Amino acid sequence: MAKSSSRRTDRAGSAFPRREGTVFSGILIGLIVGAVLAVGVALWVTGNNPFKSSAPDATVPPKPQTATPDSPETAPSFDFYKMLPSDATSEAPPSPQPAAVKTHYYLQAGAFQNPADADNLKAQLALLGIETMIQTRDLGGDLGVFHRVRVGPFREMDEINRTRALLTQNNIPATLVKEVPPPQEMP
Q1: pTM of structure
Q2: Pick the CATH number of 104-179 from 3.40.50.410, 3.30.70.1070, 3.30.390.10, 3.40.50.10260
Q3: Binning pLDDT at 50, 70 and 90, where does residue 75 land?
Q4: In terms of DSSP H, where are the helices of 7-156?
Q5: I need a surface site. Which of 54, 124, 146, 174 has the fewest CB within 10 A?
């Protein structure tokens, strides 16, 4: 078959003529259009109009000048003693009254030198549904370290009496211990 002579071909045999620089000019045109669009969007978002005249508006009257440019502005003067609520000399504020110290009451079910004995009593009380804690204290000297099994803290005597009755029913002697927490210093 014979080729149609109406088509133009270049040296490479392509049906479309090849132009030099079309890729470069496309990128350059894309950058310019993108920059113009970016500036336009930025101006639209911020509300600035660079083409608006900077001449003062004729409808707004100019503000009168109150001070001459040669005289410096005077600073306001304050008389702090007149600004106080009273003319009496200031005294130190009264110190707050110490809050009522809340006393904690515990039932001590036992004190042991052997920590295993304290754990056994704690387990026995846990089976009765009584929550306990073990406090370890060094009494110093010949006495050494003791492990106290305590129930509490209690705030009301009704709770103490109910718990003590439960302990007595299970042949566990308990001693009422009153503990006053040390006062804390105020900053």
Answers
A1: 0.43
A2: 3.30.70.1070
A3: confident
A4: 22-46, 80-83, 115-127
A5: 54
